[in-house]
Amino acid sequence: MLKKITISVLVITLQIASLGCRANDINLPDLGTPSDSVLSPVKEKEIRDSIIQQIYEYDLVMLDPIVADYIEKLGFGLAVYSENPKAPFDFFVVNENIVNASAYPGGLIIMYSGLFLRTDSESELASVMAHEIAHATQRHMSRFYAGVKKNTIPMILGMLGAAAAASYSDSRDAPIAIAVAASALNQQSMINFTRAHEYEADRVGINNLEKAHYNPLGMASFFEKLMREKPSDERYQLPEYLRTHPLSINRVTEAKNRAHASKGKEFKESELYDFVKERLRVLTKNIEIDNVSYYRKLFAEKKGSEISPSQKYGYALSLHYSHENKKALKIVKTIKRTNQTQLVINLLQANITAEINRSKGKQLFEKLYKSYPESPIVIEPYIQMLSTSRDFEDRNKARSLARKLVQIFPEKPNYYGLLAIANQNLGKSIEANEALASKEHKLHNNYRAVRVLKNILKQELDYYQRARIEAKISTYENLITKDERSREIMEENTRRRRY
């Protein structure tokens, strides 16, 4: 599998290079002139929105509500102590077993699940996040993009370029290749330019770690760990993070020296870290372990008293996904709960119970929902459980909850997808397609949104439905950019050639 991925990345990289002379065909955003000292906020947002659109389109985003909620809280908990706490930020986990993290213009921070799994403490994880936040607040990426020549844009915007080039490839590994190329192309070309920026991000990041009450030694320990690693197979390179964030003994030493200044202070770490890490161990794509076998071996090697609550959680989760729900329920009931961890454990128990006895599982979800009426990590799995029911009231409840989610979190595209499914399950095809159009709109695919809405107009609508749809079409059409229209037409032509 790794060999196939490497080939895909090479092919896509060559495609981008060959397309470099016709950047207009790739339809990247206009980055302004090289004389600009930094990109304008409008141009930064355009880049950020384009990258977010691509990672959703190629199914790279980790949409698991517990993981997404945890990483957002970690990110914003650090950003509030940054030099620009009011700056816009978006935090995403890309579901690939790659050790890397990246910062992009507009406050977009992307972390790969493989990096999370390589950390040994929340402070190590937070150190990477703080480092990337520092890149964003110091506007390192914005300065770089503003200073390059326009004919190099297809190479440095790795995510957008790879996604565009992938449209010419039939490779099933294209999404994985994009994940790799996103960082490799985006940052490898900047190493010489950013060495000073890496030191600055270390310094600013360590200060933010201390302010947020994390152990600033986490940065040095994580760097040190990566530098000690050697590939088990000589055909493969060092972790991506080492190549896109060039490390040196001096950087590690300076990080240690800065961190030691905080000696004697109290630090805090969330008990949720270990549970989310085990959850990612089960959910991450292309991980070279069989989850159930991994935990069975772990339990066999250790005595029962040595198994941590988070490892029991991971084992129960892996059994649940393997449809061994009775064994999973038996284990999850033995997990020690604390104030910080009880919700995620109780949610897993509710999910497992619902597979064994829907009525009892539903009761557990109702109880959790009453205690956490606005929590997405409760509402989303509750919707999914209700949506599989044949009972009209359950499906109607799922629709009501999905509508509540989009009202509380109107900028989350995936919640509109849940609403579309909930509407379709009730036979409400018009409302389902409206929700899909809203999802495309939130992903800045206004051309597609308009196309969906115009198809709705072909159906029999009452006066109010037609007026509502036509109003949305008018709004979204005004938001379609020239680049988006060209991209969509190009993709439509490509699909026609294929079929």
Q: Brief overview, please?
A:
By secondary structure, this protein is mostly helical. It has helices spanning 2-19, 23-26, 41-57, 65-79, 113-118, 122-137, 140-147, 153-156, 158-166, 174-188, 191-211, 217-228, 240-244, 249-260, 272-283, 291-301, 309-321, 325-332, 342-356, 358-371, 376-387, 392-408, 413-425, 429-442, 446-456, 463-477, 482-498, and strands spanning 90-94, 101-104, 108-112.
What does this structure look like?
It is a single chain. The longest helix is centred in the middle third of the chain and has 21 residues, at 191-211. The protein has two domains: 2-260, no CATH class; 272-498, Tetratricopeptide repeat domain (Serine Threonine Protein Phosphatase 5, Tetratricopeptide repeat), CATH 1.25.40.10. It contains 27 helices and three strands. Strands 1-3-2 form a three-stranded mixed sheet, sandwiched between helices. Mean pLDDT is 80; it is low at 1-36, 149-170 and 232-236. The protein has 499 residues and is an all-alpha fold. The radius of gyration is 24 Å and the shape is globular. The protein has helices at 2-19, 23-26, 41-57, 65-79, 113-118, 122-137, 140-147, 153-156, 158-166, 174-188, 191-211, 217-228, 240-244, 249-260, 272-283, 291-301, 309-321, 325-332, 342-356, 358-371, 376-387, 392-408, 413-425, 429-442, 446-456, 463-477, 482-498, and strands at 90-94, 101-104, 108-112.
